[in-house]
Amino acid sequence: MGLFKSIILKFKTKKVIKTKRPGDLLSYKDFALNDITELTVIGPVCKKDIDRLVRIAKDNGALRVLNIGGASEILEINNNQFHGCDCLEKVILPNGLLRIGESAFESCRCLNEIVVPDSLQTISKSAFFACYSLIEFKITKNVKFIGNWALACKNLESIRVDENNKMFKSIDNILFSNDGTTLLKYPSHKPESSYSVPNGVKVIANAAFQDCTELQDIVFPDSLEEIGDNAFLNTQIKRLNVPHGVKKIGKLAFSHNTLLTTVNLPGSIIRLGERAFTECHKLTDVNIENGITGIEDNVFANCHSLKSVDLPQSAYKVIE
What confidence score (pLDDT) does residue 5 get? Predict the structure, then answer.
């Protein structure tokens, strides 16, 4: 009997479902889909069908591969739709898909491969946030928008972009705007300990280097004008030289850099964001050139090794 049962379970590990109309998946009883490890769906489906697939993934705990590449009539994966599907390791998304919603695959901790179609245009905020097993991501040719923290995956090593994409490009597996003026995302687990931002980059985007814990040395180009919110939060940079020409440093931009000891800031800055250097416990030396005009709240809060900061007379707003 035990052998017979194991044969039945083995037989049930893979299943292909061909739908005739949206909603067909709702007619399947739970017991008919238990113990499946690889499920392929072909044909028209609707949001409720996708929700049913998510429930299968969460309830049976066995589903590892979900292939809906042949499913039709799905234009978007809704916000939070696959959030927390820990068992999924590979997902193939349908041709015709236009949008992946906010936090759609957030905390899918075992997801190590995601296949997106050429039709995709939008990857929303936090779409793949905390997908800890995702090592590589490919952006297809029609993607036009990528939200903040969409690829905030702590083990991500490589971001590739289709060469025909008109909005983005990849240089050394790092994501840039197509014109090269904005550095959008440096993979969190890229192994190099030092990096020189290419000349021509004007903006380092929000959270671009967040959680890049391998990074200890960063060199900025003279072209740089803006460093976004959370841009270097929780990295391991030891010394920071911000070039003249930078006008804005966002909130929390360099916070929680536990190895940072020295910061040199230019007089060109018109906004030094709230809590920009908070929780930098080894910071001892801060040099600020005259000319800086805006320093926001709690910039150096909880920097316990920092005894004092000499502020230039040009700084018109200082609130600690």
Answer: 39
- pLDDT value at residue 316: 65
**What CATH number labels 192-320?**
3.80.10
Low-confidence ranges of the chain (pLDDT < 50): 1-11, 319-320
Given this model, what pLDDT does residue 31 score? Answer: 66
HEC assignment per residue over the chain:
CHHHHHHHHHHCCEEEEECCCCCHHHHCCHHHHCCCCEEEEEEECCHHHHHHHHHHHHHHCCCCEEEEEEEECCCEECCCCCCCCCCCCEEECCCCCCEECCCCCCCCCCCCEEECCCCCCEECCCCCCCCCCCCEEEECCCCCEECCCCCCCCCCCEEEECCCCCCEEEECCEEEECCCCEEEECCCCCCCCEEECCCCCCEECCCCCCCCCCCCEEECCCCCCEECCCCCCCCCCCEEECCCCCCEECCCCCCCCCCCCEEEECCCCCEECCCCCCCCCCCCEEEECCCCCCECCCCCCCCCCCCCCCCCCCCCCCCC
pLDDT of residue 58: 86
Residue ranges of domains in the chain:
192-320
